[in-house]
Amino acid sequence: IKNDIISIQEKKIDFKFVSKPIVIYGDSGSGKSTYLKKIIGLTGSQKLDCCCIYSNELEKKIISLVDLKGYFISQEVVALKTNLKEYLSYYSDIKSKNINNLFEWNKKYKLLWSDVDNFDKWINSDLSKASYGELKRLKLLKAYLSDSNWIALDEPTSGLDSLSVLNVINAINDLSKKKILFVCTHEKKLIEKSSISILVSSI
N or C: which end of the chain has fewer CB within 10 A? Predict the structure, then answer.
């Protein structure tokens, strides 16, 4: 555990809101994903009492994650039979006004068909032709458009080549400037760029 961690006990974790990802890491099978789900309340009665502390010189405000809108993005990838525009419209928390900003953000971090210069062509791209890596990176586009206060990403770099991993890490760091970002990973470069890192040895 490093930097801005306030306290961590068996059933409670408090942390400051910071502009870098909060990373949960460990060996394969150590229980990283389980711990992440406990933090965000996906494990029912076993969930942790998790609060974030917003603070500045004038005030200190403690807010439970339960009171904030969140978005969990799993590591699983499934084949899709639709285009990008229809896919993004499936999610009720998508802000359509940010679609054009998404196009530029996507090009900056080279996530999905970033070589396509025409917006209409890009947004209507056929996702049935997308590779595993493209479908994996597609999840970050959902995260960008989400109006959630926090986002949890489970193994966002698994199965990607080294260049894609670097682009995804840069995109994640950018997202963490706008939202509370939890990331479950074994990627060393992402751990190094975190504000808080939690090593899970066993669950």
Answer: N
- Per-range mean pLDDT, top range of 84-98, 105-119, 177-191: 105-119
CB atoms within 10 A of CB 92: 6
| Each residue's pLDDT tens digit, 54-97 | 444 444 454 555 566 778 888 888 889 999 988 887 754 555 55
Residue 96 burial (CB count, 10 A): 9
3-state SS assignment for residue 47: coil
- Give me the DSSP letters along 146-185: B--SEEEEESTTTT--HHHHHHHHHHHHHHTTTSEEEEEE
Q: Which helix (H) or strand (E) holds 89?
A: helix 84-89
pLDDT of residue 17: 58
CA distance 6 to 165: 30
What is the β-pairing status of strands 49-55 and 22-25?
unpaired
- Nearest alpha carbon to residue 176 among 69, 71, 20: 20
